[in-house]
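Objective 1.3, modelling of assemblies. Example input:
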Amino acid sequence: MSVSEMSAKAVKDFLAEAEEILDQLCSDLGVMSDSVDGAECSPDSLNSVFRGAHSLKGLAGMFGFMGVQELSHNLENLLDSLRLGKVKLTSPVMTLLMDALEALGTMIRNLSEVGGVDPPIEQLVARINSAISAPGDSENDSIISTLGLPPSMLNALTEYEEHRLLENIRKSRNIFSVLASFPLATFDQDLAELTDILKKTGEVVSTLPSVGSSIESSIDFEILYGAAKNLDEVTLLIADTNATVRLLGNGATPPPTTASVVVGPDESVPNIQQDSSITAKSMSRTVRVDIGKLDDLMNIVGELVLSHSTISDITEKMRQAGYTGHLAELQKAAKGLERKLNELQKGVMEIRMIPVGQLYDKMGRIVRKISKEQGKKVDLKTFGADTELDKLIMEDIADPLMHIIRNSIDHGIEPPEERVAAGKSERGLIRLSSYQKGNHVVIEVEDDGRGIDLEKVKKKALERGIISDAEALSEREVIELIFLPGFSTSETVSDISGRGVGMDVVKNNIAAVSGMVDVESTLGQGSRMIITLPITLAIIKALIISTAGRFYALPITSVLESIMLHKKDILTVERKEVIQLRESTLPLLHLNRFFHLESKVNEADSCFVVVVGVAEKRLGIVVDDLLGQQDIVIKNLGAMFEGLHGVSGAADLGDQRTILVLDVSGIIHESTKGGGQI
Amino acid sequence: MRRILVTEDSATMRSLLIATIESCGDYEVIEASSGFEALRLLPREKVDLIITDINMPDINGLELISYVRKNANYTDTPLFIISTEGREKDVEKGLALGANEYLVKPIDPKRLQALIVKYIGS
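Predicted structure (tokens):
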């Protein structure tokens, strides 16, 4: 099969899998970076990284992507040497691993995007080769032979497993053979439960399956297990399982067990039971699905919801017309259908949700990379990794979030000397936290750096001609200047800010997924950026409004409040209509005038104002009536209406009516650029 | 119809293997995405040929071969190892455990097809 014969779908599958492997590699490297220059690296994460590079190499080779294949091949060699203990995990090696991973990421992205430039890999390959020292002497087989392992077991050990076995022996751990038999139907969970118990106090070196007493119904496993425990302790450890254990060889003299690892029988029982529920879950059983399929599914669900309301309407009409026949049954059936539809809708929504933890892994890598480049010491603490967010929003938020973190390190966190001089700890701290707040997910990036210097911001804004008078501005207004196009307080444009984008772009990208960004800052103590996002874009709550006899939907996420307004409260300032709302002035926009509609009600004394806001901008939209809230599925209007201002799509209301959904940020944009009265 | 079990954890690699197998004759392919899945499938399914990767997350290919060769139903079933270049030691062990052939990634489709025909006919 040549590349040309390979279907586009296969390449797409490759890209999806490669991306998944890279994500996993990033997260594993994150774990490994904690054990640079010292603490022993977890063999599990090291092995997982090795396997990732290995799979990537195999895949790329199959597709003839030579660059990716070559680099991942070299990366695999380096990881293999690390795994087998021939190379030590030092800080330069870690940097090399991260650089290689980044280059792989760029190369794989370039396969799906036109115009990207592949990074030169010759230099990386040379660095990798010099990092791999000459292979050490072959391991001493005689050590292993003292264990008296049967050849059948010895032969099934891979080179890596042999190395792990030797490491365990060198550390004077005892080597045990744990035998267990499980029913064929559930052996994977049962085995995972057993190995999880074992892994708490030792290392599972190898798991060898063998035919059980009855081939059709059971399967036996012999686990090679290394632990600094004696036979009695291990026997106690697995007392609640059906496994048996024996000590291999003569047994080393185990170092005295410390109090913290001794598991008493009364403690171990609840622990094990709690863990068994976790193990069943941790066995990865995932299906990769194109998000387009989920969108289709969501559309169908949306249409089903509409069909259901049609049925309810007909039921209501029948009732009014005096039908009695099977009416009660019909109503009951419709009610049941509604309940099931709600469950279906919820289920489809949940499929789209992924934990923000996936985003955290990427950010961790960025923090390590940038702080290194900047010569700053920065720790990243993350909270709320389980918070779930729509996959599409997650993708769109990754870049803005990266820039915010870049900014925090670049402008916020001070160099170590400056921090010490200011009485802070040498290491800066960035807290990345997420939590759900109603129908929103809030992501906060908080640093303990120097904070935003308002005087400096004012000065810069004056210099750049962004504002003409700084005196009248409130603290809040000054901070918000940083979101204006072309603003930067950095005195020297560093490598990073040079590549970075302004906060205005960050803000626009967040607004594009109906999100908002706010900033709080205390001079000398740090800043906090608060990103508020809708949980999903697929189904949204909308406020249905009417003007000039037409109906529109306003996404509730951009509605701040709605108020009743008397005509006499409208003021005119510089030919623009405004109202005084609490302490601030709110510009008004008559929706009927925006869409050039004749209004009959507009002459009335009172109307409604819906206060909308995207990021820091606020606008009052004047409408005739508010008709309440409703869940809507936004549908695209198609390419023909792409240039349409102020409208983001259409939605069915369920009573056979289709209405337009307003694009709040578009309307705000139009109204501010118009200048004159609208 | 002849049945072939393909054990490989990478979905992309697996579907490429299957495409290659299916293009060379009328074979029924049974897929396993991990060693565990293969262990579960084997007692239930009659297979004529087993193709397995060595590097897999739960049990590795060598452990799978050792299981297969100890199982009376499969002592004579042809078994191919898929390996990556540079892992000769593991290949040697696999052959010692009773694998019949090995293929190195990237797989040469012609060689795979020839081997299948050689062992189980077309």
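The longest helix of chain B spans residues 11-23.
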